[in-house]
Design goal:
The protein has about 230 residues and is α+β, with helices and mostly antiparallel strands. Helix content is about 15%, strand content about 25%. The protein is globular.
Length: about 230
């Protein structure tokens, strides 16, 4: 028999995930033997040595009918592995390659899977704002969350003005993601960024670091051309 999956009360065959059982297969004596095992321990299953993977239970707040439907779904869909995607640490590539791309295109490097930009940063601490101490800037780069702090729209970069400009309500941020104009309550939020010994840039998207308050300006760069979006 194939590998078993369990959500405590329901068992799945890994090779036939569309089939499910309310208890692991086996005869009555095996079930009696399993009664003394820890909860979620499959014991011998149908064959000696069959492994089982204990998965989180179906959320109890779901309606009963939906819970029954969820149990019939493939476990890999119910509990996805976030490794390498938003909500995890993402390898953004070599530091040298990122800096070369920024210099050649004169714009930030955007990573859609991680929902962040990497921008160059050579500014100095301003007031209580110190990006390197916060861990959001290192070795001349900084990571910015794409989401506008106002109402959550994705904020594109305007090549003309060299600012980030929200298309929804006109909030504007300089190249360092610091608030300049519009209804946004603060600068763009950030993620912690590190550079490994081999030169790989790692961005941790599991924790959002709130952006700097209004009035912060560590780079003092006015817009370099006309705006892409009318000021809000």
């Amino acid at each position: 028999m194939g590998e078993l999956w369990t959500t405590k009360s329901v068992w799945f065959r890994a090779d036939r995930p569309h089939l499910w059982l309310r208890r692991p297969p086996g005869n009555g004596s095996e079930r009696a033997e399993r009664a003394g095992r820890p909860r979620g321990d499959p014991g011998q299953g149908a064959e000696a040595g069959d492994p089982a993977r204990v998965l989180p239970p179906v959320p109890p707040f779901l309606p009963r009918r939906l819970r029954r439907g969820v149990r019939r779904c493939h476990p890999a869909f119910l509990w996805p592995n976030l490794k390498g995607g938003f909500g995890s640490a993402i390898d953004a590539g070599k530091l040298t390659d990122i800096k070369a791309q920024i210099q050649s295109t004169n714009q930030p490097v955007y990573f859609g899977a991680g929902r962040f930009y990497i921008v160059p940063f050579t500014g100095k601490p301003s007031g209580n704002v110190n990006y390197e101490a916060e861990g959001v800037a290192t070795q001349g780069i900084m990571s910015l969350y794409q989401r506008c702090p106002h109402l959550g729209c994705r904020v594109p970069f305007c090549q003309q003005s060299q600012w980030f400009e929200c298309p929804c309500h006109g909030s504007k941020y300089n190249f360092a993601g610091e608030y300049q104009l519009g209804p946004a309550p603060r600068g763009m939020d950030r993620f912690k960024v590190t550079v490994t010994a081999s030169g790989e840039v790692m961005v941790d998207t599991s924790q959002i670091i709130l952006g700097p308050p209004r009035g912060t300006n560590t780079i003092h760069e006015p817009p370099q051309g006309p705006f892409c979006v009318a000021p809000g």
